[in-house]
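Reagents: none. Just compute today. HD-GYP domain, c-di-GMP phosphodiesterase class II (Or its inactivated variant).
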Amino acid sequence: MRLAILTEALQGKILGNTVYNENGILFLKEGAVLTSSAIKRLQNMGINTVYIKEDEENDDMVIQEALEIQVKLKLIKLLKEVFNDVKTKNYVDYDKCYEIVDTIIKSINLSENAMLINNLTKSDFISDLCIHSIDVATLSIIIGTYKKYDIKKIINLALAALLHDVGKLLDNNKEHHAILGYNLLKQNTMFKATTFSAVYQHHEMYDGSGPLGLKGENIFEFAKIINISDLYVNLIKQDNILPHEAIERITALGNKIDPEIYRDFISTVYCYPNGTRVILNNGQEGVVIAQNKNLTTRPIVRVKENGKYNYYNLQKELTLFIEKVIL
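Predicted 3D structure written out:
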């Protein structure tokens, strides 16, 4: 299989991953032929990347989800209940939120080969917000785990990440929704100050260019983690780009991102997911088939040479590097 941007160029190709709607109903099954109408439907429902089956040669590829689809579907249903309560009762149910983050923490796949896969369609604003919130919470947990946070810190970080956009249910304005979310969580004494403070500050930038003007160490660390996780998820899910491009754009932000949090981020998010077609600096084309732990830019690449498949482990092949991604 290979990972591809979903465009009309994929017409006639075989889908390599099943796509569901947010209610768990099968939308398009693995093995289906991508027609022009199917591609448009998927695009309209928020799907921008898919895995494509090419032939049996890719049987050795390792593809894993950071959060298994059935677990994610269950959590989306529960988070919808939370968000509907916010809209009707102006109240956030702590117990349900705790259940969601506890399930993510217990279910998350921390393997270097696991990734956030865009395989859920969105039918409305709340569905989209649920999927986005769970993805941001998942990535924040991965970063918090890398930073060796204890379980209490991870839970409070995860709660803030899960609810970072809860204020959008009341007002979608960028400046307003953060303070609305902060005030909403503050009403419930079960939420810690570290959680609602992170929600309040999650749009702040390290150089002081955020909406509140907070700068550097005046920004709470949880907020910095949620900020970079939010940026990344938005880039890969909304801007129709692959992870390496999203990472390049975040890198280009320079001093807007805390350098320590940036290092944590690039140490946990892998640039070239399994299935990415690449060109190495020696001119050979290949496919990324597996990752090397903590070496996010140095995966294992399979190359076809003289009718045979050779494997280049970029952890060991120090003169080789990925020069370009083939879209």
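The chain is about 40% helix and 15% strand.
Action item: order primers for follow-up constructs.
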